[in-house]
Amino acid sequence: MQPGTDGRSVLLLKAFAALDAMHKGKGTRGVFASIGQQLIICDELCTAGFEKEERKTVREAHAALVRADWDARSTGIWSLTDTDYEAVRQAVLVYETQLRLAPHVNVLEAELRMVRLQLDSDSTRKAA
Taking the chain, what is the end-to-end CA distance rounded to the nearest angstrom? Predict the structure, then answer.
């Protein structure tokens, strides 16, 4: 992947930076959300056929984020345990491979699906 060619390197950098912050216990709700967004894109790319055999890895990372969210609600600290860090790190490595393999249009489509999911989720919360 050539840095700066189409934004994929920025997506990957964001994912690794967010992962690092969470591992060091310096995460925030925004950092947490950023990792979650990247994992949704990763899952969408699995659905599109890029590293589809790694979907379990991505789902385990989602579960790790659910645990981090649960912990942060009671402690106020946005972090990942060592085990959960490793689960998310493995998914970010899958994401790295996907960004290298998937054509730019597929990455953009996955990003668009992630945004639609967020908008649907926001609309549901506001209606409740």
Answer: 43
Could you read off the pLDDT of 12-50 as tens digits, one per residue? 898 999 999 999 999 999 999 999 999 999 999 999 999
**Residue 78 bridge partners (DSSP):** 27
In whole angstroms, what is the distance from residue 94 CA to residue 5 CA?
Answer: 20
- CA pair distance 101, 75, nearest whole angstrom: 39
The answer to whether 18 and 35 are in contact (CB under 8 A) is yes
pLDDT per residue over 43-54, tens digit each? 999 999 999 999
Q: Give 27's strand partners.
A: 78
pLDDT of 109 above 80: yes
Specify burial of residue 15 (Cβ count, 10 A radius: 0-12, 13-18, 19+).
buried
Sequence-ordered list of residues with C-beta below 8 angstroms from that of 85, at least 6 positions apart, any chain: 19, 22, 23, 64
CA-to-CA distance for 94 and 74, rounded, in angstroms? Answer: 31
